[in-house]
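Section 3.1 - Work completed
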Amino acid sequence: MLSGLAALAYLSIQLGGSTYSGPGGLRLFAAFDEVGGLAPRSPVVIGGVKVGQVKSIELSPTGDFRARVMIDIDKNLKLPDDTAASILTQGELGSQYIGLEPGGSETLLENDGEIAYTQSAVVIERLIGRVIQSLGNSTGGGEKPSSDSSGGGG
């Protein structure tokens, strides 16, 4: 019975697709304006290969009201300091993950380093709201016409 449980545990780990070294790897931080549905334990990938995971998400301590994401990646990776991080959506389920794009700098990110180049998550509800708003404005949207002929009415 114990060997059956051990086999089940092994299969669970293998099917999970974990390829990075786990805790104790390289800890990095990235600040985003919007994290969308990103959550702790979301994967961090380079070129579609999982190299780490999100450890935590909290507000930045600098007071700029940005989300500060801590990620843990494989300690054997040597990432340039101009690496970019983007929050992307995976598949039809819409789960989100961080995609890293290494740059070309010779200087490497060190433990507790900050990824300076980030691209926030796209929130579909906001996009739909903007489209509806722009359609409303272009079709009149119930606004009174302005007598100002400068075209600066909004």
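Second construct:
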Amino acid sequence: MRPKDRDLARQLEAALRCFESQDLPLPGISSVATRGAFIEQLIESIRRVKYISVICNSQISASRADPASDIFDPIKAAVLRMREAQTDDAFWFVFLSVHFGKHRVDGWRLARDIYGCLCLGAPWDWARTSADPREFRRWLGENQTRLKSGGVGRRFGNHRKYQSLDAWSEAGTGAAFESYVEWVRPPRTHKALVQHAYEQANRNPRAAFECLYRSMDKVASFGRTAKFDYLTMIGKLGLAPIEPGSTFMQGATGPYSGAVLLFGRRTGATPSRPLLDDWVTRLGTRLGVGMQVMEDALCNWQKTPSCFKRFRG
């Protein structure tokens, strides 16, 4: 553990003990090893979430939004577009970052080459894609072979490793792009979409998050993790006044396994997902961390519960 994190670790340890004495036991971290690993995963998750605020307050090269550049980065590109008041493109870059993900070896190459039209034409930015998503699907279909060959690594990130690049299947990239456009419904803007949800939720950031989360069911290939990642990112970037009020345990895999391990079984039965969601929310409140931190930490901790391991991609 880094020396600068030790104070935070002590605070988290104290909060965990307080939760155990006043709320619920945490049998999954009864040993020194499991407790230490869980605390380190919490710290790592806190650091990842804070990293976005660091980006938002940093100087960013214009090359981050240039698909011809080796340093293309859709998250940093989203920040650039925010600063330029090109809000729709900022949201679009976030969508691209989540749909393709960052591969631990290939980086953002897949997102970069598709957004950049393989340097064969104008980028598939929001204006072009939303104007004619069927044309994008035709282009994608015509370039399938090129995107999958040529000796260039173009792979989806870990959270999207089962995603299809197919242009015409119901769950492929073509369908994801077209259904995302249909979700926004141009000429309505992303900002108007978010504002409508915010007003529907009586200006409650957590209720607005859930409203948008439910509405994203219509975006092809966007399951629980993709919806959660997309909405938390637009919230962290300041594109929308929203935040998750729970970990949305229904449909979760890694976070669910982590919650079951942490809280244990009661009278031989596994707690229900809604009950686990409630317990995780209560624990997050006690720890003073948001639901994205809890979701991320539980997911990574359950992979190696007795030994802290840093996960990327």
